[in-house]
Task: structure prediction
Amino acid sequence: MCLSYFSLLFFPYFEPQFSPHSYGYRPHKRACQAVNYVQSCVKQGYKTAVDIDLSKFFDEVNHDMLMNRVGRKIKDKALMRLLGKYLRAGIAERETGLWFESTKGVPQGGPLSPLLSNILLDELDKKLTYKQLKFARYADDIIILVKTKSEGLIIQQEITAFITKRLKLKVNESKSRVGPVSGSKFLGFTFRYGQVQIHEQALK
Result:
């Protein structure tokens, strides 16, 4: 069974439940929509950004955590075994040809990995939605918008704890920040004076 077909089998079980503010690797969703949504939030007065940087997300996905999330919807044991084999297939180093066992992570660039990333991070989307927060997510690129820095600091602490304890992922605290949205970089853009601009680092 090819992996693209495997992905199509999973798709109808999960796609309908995904958040409207999840924009990555989904039909009729685009990065420009995510950027436009953030801009609209800024114009509504949400000018403080909580940037959460997931450290090497695709390398750090916990296999048991992911299998548990998938298993809530998929009851076919053969499909679940195939998913387990996909996750544990290992990595062959191109230069040396040596094979390394996969104990965590999903193959970056693999045809099934984008869907798996959305399945795992959907729980984060639901947490943010439950808290009635303004946010946009494109794969592992996340921005949360609030009105004050004090609120942002509380949200940052709570969401960081949720990601590390609940989802077993790592947050790069040195790259995460709370501050004016004009200092944030989301999908290569920033938001200044109500306008979308290319971030200086992205331009370089």
User: Anything to note?
Assistant: The chain has a mean pLDDT of 89. The first strand starts at residue 48 and ends at 53.
